[in-house]
Specification:
Elements (H helix, E strand, L loop, with lengths): L12 H17 L2 H32 L7 H57 L8
Helix pairs in contact: 2-3
Length: 135
């Protein structure tokens, strides 16, 4: 037996994802400004998410000092809360902005599929047989 012929090939996610993105690109480009805003909010949310642990580290490090002023840890704690809020806010804004793009693209794709089904259904029902009306 040849064991190499029975082996399954690894699924190539990278090329498959690129193909899907190329097919979706025309739908996304119709609402270019909304897509740019959504990607911008996504990046801001990720930056705020990365800054949260850094702010928490600074809070803990500032509490270790002996000559500490109480305002510094409270300010850092406030910054931590604001970063957490900013992360959630930017994620929600991204979802709100991109929702119209997502539903518009889904609508156009569904319409294309429906038109293809109705076209092929028409061809299958009337194209292969010669339909005649006999009263």
């Amino acid at each position: 037996m040849n064991s190499s012929s029975n082996q399954t090939k690894a699924y190539d996610f990278k090329t498959r994802d690129i193909k899907v993105l190329k097919k979706l690109l025309p739908y996304l480009l119709k609402m270019r400004a909304r897509v740019i805003w959504a990607v911008s909010f996504l990046m801001l949310a990720k930056l705020a998410n990365v800054a949260v642990p850094l702010a928490l580290k600074e809070i803990v490090d500032s509490l270790d000092q002996t000559n500490i002023i109480l305002v510094l840890p409270l300010g850092m704690l406030l910054a931590y809360g604001l970063l957490r809020l900013a992360s959630s806010l930017f994620n929600e804004l991204r979802d709100a902005i991109f929702a119209k793009v997502r539903y518009h693209a889904m609508n156009l794709i569904a319409l294309g599929v429906f038109q293809a089904f109705t076209y092929f259904g028409f061809i299958l029902s009337f194209g292969s047989t010669h339909w005649r009306y006999n009263p």
